[in-house]
Amino acid sequence: MSYLGIDLGTSGLRALLVSETGAVLGSVERSYRSEHKHSGWSEQDPAHWIAALDEAIEELRHSSTAFGDLRAISVAGHMHGATLIDGTGAVIRPCILWNDTRAHAEARDLDATEQVREISGNIVFPGFTAPKLAWVAKHEPAHFARIHKVLLPAGYLNYHLTGAFVADMSDSAGTSWLNVAERTWSETLLEAGQMRLDQMPRLVEGCQPAGTLRPELARRWGVGDRVIIAGGAGDNAAAACGIGALNEGDGFLSLGTSGVLLAARDGYHPNPASALHTFCHAVPDRWYQMGVMLSATDSLNWLGQITGTSPSDLTADLGETLCAPGRVQFMPYLSGERTPHNDANIRGSFTALGKDTTRSDLTRAVLEGVAFGLRDSHEVLVETGARIDRLLAIGGGTRSRYWVKLISTVLNVPLELPKDGELGAALGAARLAIIAETGEEPDRVLTPPDVAERILPDAKLKDAFDAAYDRFKAGYPTLRTVSSLT
After folding, report:
1. Cα(first)–Cα(last) distance of the chain, in Å?
2. C-alpha span between 94 and 92 (Å, rounded)
């Protein structure tokens, strides 16, 4: 028996074939590009997703004999994208992606609308789906008039696979149309966004069957006539499933281009004013909350570019022994910030520079600034009552042991580094497919990976970093003043 997890990313598609025990049987990737016709625009033609899927399946068919015994498929996708479908099932216009900011005015108006934050549990960000549709209504009324269904990217692949309009709870929570507490479409939110309930796909939980593979695809792929399609998940919920972050106390820290601090929740505890995301998890009766900073390793990459030094060389200069906070301070807002500021115009800075400042001083300041930015997310998570006993640390930035030790100390949370192996959204999706087909309990399938190393906070330096974090926060008003001038 085999199961397929599909990770529909912004820059490419990954198909991961696993056994019933989760062992990897095959993996294929295909890339595609986004189009940026105007400043702030980001779009993709959904036909490119289908072409990438077709190529990936063709390769898996010929590279893995286990593919012929395929039992179930699940799709994880980049969230918030608006794929508009007409009455014939055709795509009306290119999908407007999550990182498209054209609908900032519509987002501001929706966010100020009575009950929107209360029902959705979140600020309405420009990247969310509802403001995109308000933008289409205003600027492309002919397209808006043709809309039969609105699908998220993963939902569009589900439509291609099953012929049915279906979406999972975790992905739909990022639309500003879902009542996230009750896990159902909200007619109040839909009306605020000029949409109707009949234009929404049917909702299912991510680990539940959403349909079966269309017969024509089953024949072409050489698989059985009853391949289950699971509900699937948004990419971060799927990533949480991939590393076993399911219960209260579980979570992960992703130290990539952006920084993500995610905590699994047993209940619904929104805090929209903090720009914290509160979304449904991919399994019933579970939620997750997530703080996002926009420039994590991107801050280190920027320093590397302007100093002509690779990021790995910058961090290597620091060694692995954690030092007390430096005098130089860095505010990591090179591209604005999400949690907790929700400010696209806020910008970063270095302070306390002197003639004696060295490149290593700048590197330490950047690493500390990112760590403090992640603590901002940790602080607002704790405000909601989240229990964060430990965090699995993933992403390219975790290759620096200095940085991992620093973040552990700043957050005062143990960080666990996984052993080499499969992680991420594709694995999480494959696990959801296993649950949907076998009926296994999620806790038995969504297990954490083996841990290679556990990094503990440095108790001797905790007070010093607490004080440095207080100084970091004291710089917020100055940055907001600069933001108001841009």
Report:
1. 57
2. 7
CB 91 within 8 A of CB 50: no
pTM equals: 0.92
> Whole-angstrom Cα distance, residue 367 to residue 404?
10
Residue 306 token pair: 């302007």
* 244-422+456-486: CATH, from 1.20.1740.10, 3.30.1050.10, 2.60.120.10, 3.30.420.40: 3.30.420.40
How many angstroms separate the most distant Cα atoms in the chain? 72
Q: Is 55 exposed, middle or buried (0-12, 13-18, 19+ CB in 10 A)?
A: middle
The residues annotated with a catalytic role in the active site are 235
3-state SS class at 208 = coil
State residue 165's pLDDT score: 98
- Residue pLDDT, tens place only, 34-90: 999 998 899 999 999 999 999 999 999 999 999 999 999 999 999 999 999 999 999
CATH topology of domain 2-236: Nucleotidyltransferase; domain 5 (3.30.420)
Domain boundaries, the chain: 2-236, 244-422+456-486
Which residues of the chain are modeled with pLDDT < 50?
A: none
